Amino acid sequence: MRALLSLLCAAFVAASPLEPRDTITSTVNLGNNTGSPEHLASGFIYGLPDTQNQIPDHFYTDIGFNYARAGGAQVPAPGRGWIWGLAEYKVRFASALSNYRTARKYNADFIFLIHDLWGADGTQNSTAPYPGDNGDWTSWDDYLTQWISDVNANKITDGLSVDIWNEPDLTYFWNAPQAQYIQMWGRTYHRLRQELSTVKLIGPAFAGQPDPTNDWWTTFLSFIASNSSVPDQYVWHMESGGGDMEGAYGALVGMLQTYKLPIKPLNIDEYATWPEQVPAGSAWWISQLERVNAHGLRGNWLSGWQLHDFMASLVSKAYANGPDYSPTGGCYYPNGDYQVYQYYNLNMTGYRVGTSPSGDLKLDTFATVGKDMVRVLTGVRITTGTWQITINDLSAVGLPTSGSLNIHTWGFPFTNHWGEVDVPNDLGWVSHTYSGNSVTFPVFQTDTSTAYAFEFDVV
Ligand SMILES: *[C@@H]1O[C@H](CO)[C@@H](O)[C@H](O)[C@H]1NC(C)=O
Ligand SMILES: *[C@@H]1O[C@H](CO)[C@@H](O)[C@H](O)[C@H]1NC(C)=O
Ligand SMILES: *[C@@H]1O[C@H](CO)[C@@H](O)[C@H](O)[C@H]1NC(C)=O
Ligand SMILES: *[C@@H]1O[C@H](CO)[C@@H](O)[C@H](O)[C@H]1NC(C)=O
């Protein structure tokens, strides 16, 4: 009778891949190969010192750094950008150019933030001008002429993207009417497409995630459909502490159907709040971004010259956060969050497999099958409690459908954003008995910041 029941259950599970997710269980499906890992989440905004080679190469290469985004934000006078005159534009451009060269040294793509070079970096005063004020586009047209000429003169079109404007849905970055933003998009898109045809034009980089009740999204999508100005990547930010990637992407796909727009690659070119920039939060975001194949760049919550340092809070250095801080100082070391990205890049090799988050969206997993081991990186969205991980289809990696499995655990601790962590903690091996081609084990999350990796040998 027992045997019959479990057979029935197994048949039921196999026939119902869409059964509701268990609230506390994140699931890994070893039979669902989702392609080569490209560590899609290994980008960050700013965080590159304006002095090239200041942070040693291995800090970039060990995390597989692959996406940068800058435009001279917060460079002080005399470098406040175009709205303060050509001389201040030139100083700001030099900062972005240096960051571009740093990114390209590691073959990372570079997103140029032309709103920052203009001067609307959030520190602009309440009377600062915006493109097209009072219907006059002269200054913006002249600005683009200057910028296109500098891009060509410095030969920086390789690996270059342009975010046409950052977070125009926040008055902090766009304190002008929405309709003026839309006109700016249409004018700028067509001009850059014509004059810099190989450069990717991306956007809209809204702070708000896709949502059919969000008037910025609906107005934008409806306009680009009629204006033939569809971005090469759809971009938005996930820095509010809410939402999740499947929900946000699902909303985008629904709206693309409404406006008869094509699917394009995704780029979440600012993700995670400051409190989420801890190992657990980073592992959660990595899992979320990988699931929908979105490029991701860590948000950057530092200001002034610290914004141009520290790889968006992945590294720190002597006197990093005190009165003796020097933007050009050296002696870098990794923090706890860095260890997660290093493991993600160096150790999670082979091929990716499909995973699902726990039904409450608090625990998520990213998993790879390497030649030697299965590796499952997991993190909670900065909360405590007990969750569990189920790994299905163990026979897909050559294991028997029942028996005992030795699982190795690493803990990725957090000290604080400035604290040194050089290695993850080896938490040893635990044996789990299993049956039905599936193993389930608990994750005891007693703090809000530690991420874990679980590993076992493949046959
Ligand atoms: C405000 O910023 C603009 C440049 O954006 C500058 O021309 C103007 O002088 C500034 N006004 C004040 C009061 O600082
Ligand atoms: C797109 O919109 C801009 C701004 O209104 C306009 O200048 C341009 O002619 C439009 N292009 C097309 C193809 O509709
Ligand atoms: C990750 O891979 C590197 C390079 O092979 C190795 O030195 C390191 O020990 C590995 N780390 C873990 C946690 O397995
Ligand atoms: C495989 O995993 C991907 C990513 O999680 C998911 O979208 C897809 O539906 C999964 N396929 C199957 C057959 O479960």
UniProtKB/TrEMBL annotation:
This protein's record includes keyword Signal: yes
Q: Which UniProt keywords apply?
A: Hydrolase, Signal
InterPro entries found in the cross-reference section = GH
Q: Which organism is it from?
A: Hyaloscypha variabilis (strain UAMH 11265 / GT02V1 / F)
Please identify the protein, giving its name as recorded: Glycoside hydrolase family 39 protein
Q: Which residues form the signal peptide?
A: 1-15
A single MF term (Gene Ontology): hydrolase activity
Transmembrane regions listed in the UniProt entry: none
